[in-house]
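Usage example:
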Amino acid sequence: MPPSTPFSNHSLDEYLRQQEQKDLLRFMTCGSVDDGKSTLIGRLLYEAKLLFSDQLLTLEAESRKRNVPDGKLDFSLLLDGLLAEREQGITIDVAYRYFSTDRRKFIVADTPGHEQYTRNMVTAASNSDLAVVLVDARKGVLTQTRRHSYLLSLLGIRHVVLAVNKMDAVDFSEEVFSDIEQEYRSFVRSLASIQVTAIPLSALLGDNVIEPSSHTPYYSGPPLLTYLETVSVNETEAEKPFRMPVQWVNRPHQDFRGFSGRIASGTISQGETIRVAPSWKQASVSRIVTQEGDLPKAIAGQSVTLVLDQELDVSRGDVIASHKATPGVTDQFQATLMWMDEEPLFSGRSYVLKIGTCTATATITFLKHKVNVNTMEHLAARKLEQNEVGVCNLSLDRPVAFDSYAENRNTGGFVLIDRMTHHTAGAGLIHFALRRADNLHWQTLDVTKQARAHMKGQKPCVLWFTGLSGAGKSTISNLVEKKLFAIGKHTYVLDGDNIRHGLCKDLGFSPPDRIENIRRIAEVAKLMVDAGLIVLSAFISPFAAERDFARSLFGEGEFLEVFVDTPLSEVEQRDPKGLYKKARAKTLLNFTGIDSPYEPPKRPDIHIETTKESAEEAATRIVERILMSG
Amino acid sequence: MRLTHLQRLEAESIFILREVAAECEKPVLLYSIGKDSAVLLHLAQKAFFPSKLPFPLLHVDTTWKFRDMISFRDSVAKQEGISLLTHINQEGLSRGINPIDSGSGVHTDVMKTQGLRQALDLYGFDAAIGGARRDEEKSRAKERVFSFRTAQHRWDPKNQRPELWQLFNARKHKKESIRVFPLSNWTELDVWQYIYQEQIPIVPLYYAAPRPVVKRDGLWILVDDERLPLFPGEAPEIKKVRFRTLGCYPLTGAIESDADTLPAILSEMLLCTTSERSGRAIDFDQAGSMEKKKQEGYF
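Running the assembly step on the lines above writes:
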């Protein structure tokens, strides 16, 4: 609370020193729509006299505009800062407010209750120490109350205040309060160690917000603000093993090479021995550099630059760690995923993964199950929709350093980024590394790909034809094969329809099946390239992500994407198999170009526009390209 | 050993600044000459020490900044290791846009918002670091630390990227860009306290001094040069005033004050009952005005 009398210079310095020593509580409010989250924070700020007079005047004016009764204030207007929020009277995104009392500083995140904005609630939870879960006394524990509580427990929040709000609407009934408290406690028992404190209150009238209420004689605990000021939330990061993800290699000149980063956990002292993950190289810290001078010691939370006593090859994404308690290093692990993108997660897809300061490519190798957030039941799944939670295995293109999320939030949490849209699509919590990576070795064979290719006198590769149904992929690939065969090359055509009769006959045409179909074909093509063949694959392969996955299986120059580009109007007119007619008549569903999307390649290796070039000309051009590259 | 509040904030901001440098191709620090910019520059120098700043500073000059601001900017530009670019929207200038005749809305849009977009496009910057804080204004309170902008510089507040832990997603397509706010979690008090603790130089206008002012729409406006037309019967008075926030001088209100030292400013601030944006004419235009400006590309 602000002081009310002027300071002398001495008392100012004293006051500022006290401010500096206050600890910080980061908390959030969550719960279902209309449970009064924004109103509660507004009331808290108002009662604690933390609003400026011009903010109050604006609030009064806006409340009148909203037809709030005279003399009353609509506190949600203080937080719902976006126009769309004020128009609709809902919270869409997290609002952060900063305030302090005599005892503590606070950052409070007000989060949305609507299910479609769950990702924003999760964003706030990832950086909170405590959550206030609001429940409307008239409605009790709702689906969204359970969903939010489950997510809080996943993200490792230990302290929850169950704020039973709108008690004034139920005449401050003790029975209502204790029923809700019991129901909530029995639900929470199934979750990881959450400590619950239940408070009956009225954000609208202020009961048990700042001052104890006379309407709730059955409640002997502290009002909300007092609880928030006194609850002990231990900062334990400094006591954990030392970890510093390297952000930036600091190299101003030949004589200085330092590694800049923020200490994620633990402490580091000058002279201490460290190890660098994933290379496991060892060195000792010769200097801890800051602009104010070298430090003898630094702790979790500080941003520093470390200089080592040896010239090690360390780069961004590496983790400098305690040599006694090292992090894990793996390229395969199991994790809980919270999916946040509109585009669902499919098993088999690959994404950009960011953990600490490290970026890698991650493929979802296995989706074990998803979780029904109401019943905690595990359900079999082949995809995760927006706001769903599941457990899956991931495989990375290179080893990364990690800790389990339960041990260390900063080195055990990661995000997945869509490779096409760059959206932050999912958040993950690492459970453990999968040992398979160590135990399943490739059988090494004496006759190599190079040897087989040499014997055939050709450079093996895959020509990956993509385009709409009826675009001319099969026609052109047949011509190419004939031409190559005629000059003694060893080839094989993988054709869409033929494969669907055998290898992939168990698959349909839904997006997850299409993805699996392409994965199998890509793997088969890879074996054939390994055998030394020139492989021609002719599939619609509508999704860029799967084509990129296929490309990632092959070496440089082994994968040529051939875009057979025929406009939809043209293929519909040709309609050689009569499929477009059926699709338009809706007797054939999930048909690419009609009710299932086709993502054209942005930079194909070979681009064929069939309206400008005959199949014969195109085939000749492709053969020339292959022969040219050896 | 425990970190103090300012140490925590400082370390977090340094982390953010380094992430921008490491992940973006061509970042720039938007330098608006005010106290927040001063703090931002100070933090950036710490973040990369002993290296020089890995990005330049950019000032979008509306040509109506206080004279004291411009001379302060020029002295900063002379410092070792700092490269400062200045951009003026010449097209706006030749159209004669100014805050007095065109009104604050048009002037800010053309000279500041469009000027900024021009400069970012001209130099091809893909990340612009700014000193905005979440405690300044309601729509700012909703913004991410790494805030994504389309190729047209638009902000889509309804569809922001989730930002978990300290994992910032800086990926984007060509022409798209990111605004980065390392001071997101600082309050006005934190900024002043940090300036005091670190003895960071700031523009003299923040300190109270006798200055010629006129009262307009409830704000004390400084008569900074002869371009400010006086209305009939209006005569500049000498008042001891200072500024809590700096912008274009005809749009920025001063407060009467005796605070001519940092401790005096701090104690005045602690007793103050109005928020700092109350001195800015542009926020009064209409409800949600800041959000609209931001959607159009204003910082």
